[in-house]
Amino acid sequence: MAQQVKTITSEALEAAYRALTPSQDGFTEDLMASNTIIPVLDMTASAQGTETPQYLQTAWDFSTNHQNFTNLITTGTSLISTTGFWKVDFTFTPNTSVTGTRSLRINDGTTSKEIWANKVGTGSTAAAVILEESFIVFLRAGDSLIWVSDTASYYSDIWWRQVADVNGNLTNPLGFTPQ
Q1: What does the pLDDT look like over 47-79, one tens digit per residue?
Q2: Tell me: the pLDDT tens digits for 121-166?
Q3: Most buried of the four, 28, 36, 50, 69, by CB within 10 Å?
């Protein structure tokens, strides 16, 4: 079979090619297509299976930390004080008949930055609900994630696991080594 070469005249394809290959700026030749099969070998960690997909990398594992609260903590309880990225999940059951605020905060030793809060006003008659939140927190050197409450009438269950170090290097689940 003879090799065939065809000219491709598509402004959209040419614009995409120029955008993805800025070193080819000024390249004026038309794009060409050939019926020759040219194998492409993807040597990235993802293609080799030596990199864990993000959804598996953030799995809860034996290193997951857990704590529950039903008490008054006006000064805050430190949950995490190690640098890096942390997956945090929690459930919170407020007592809607008791005025108060419960919150998760990032504390740098001087200032606390509230990142989640539940505030219940006086005389609320709504039924208690279970709230669940899940998010990623980044802690720098000197930062800590703390739980603060100004009332004891609630129940909270918090769990967390490090998903990357301070430089963004992913942390695989404990005991897992990609092949």
Answers
A1: 666 667 778 888 899 999 998 887 767 778 899
A2: 655 555 556 677 889 999 999 999 998 887 766 778 899 999 999 9
A3: 69
The pTM of the full predicted model, rounded to 2 decimals, is 0.67
CA 53 to centroid of chain Cα atoms = 13
* Angle made by CA atoms 152, 158, 164, in degrees to the nearest 5: 145
Q: Which of these CATH numbers, 3.40.50.2000, 3.90.400.10, 3.30.365.10, 2.60.120.1010, describes 54-164?
A: 2.60.120.1010
Instruction: Phi first, then psi: give them for residue 139, nearest 5 degrees.
Output: -115, 130
- Whole-angstrom distance, CA of residue 45 vs CA of residue 52: 9
Largest CA distance in the chain: 85
Cα torsion for 104, 107, 112, 113, to the nearest 10°?
Answer: -60
Let me know the angle formed at the C-alpha of 164 by 158 and 169, rounded to the nearest 5 degrees: 175
| Residue 58 Ramachandran class (φ > 0 left, ψ -120 to 50 alpha, else beta) | alpha
In angstroms, rounded to a whole number, what is the distance separating the alpha carbons of residues 75 and 56? 36
Half-sphere exposure of 33 (CA within 13 A, CB side): 8
132 vs 7: CA distance, rounded Å: 57
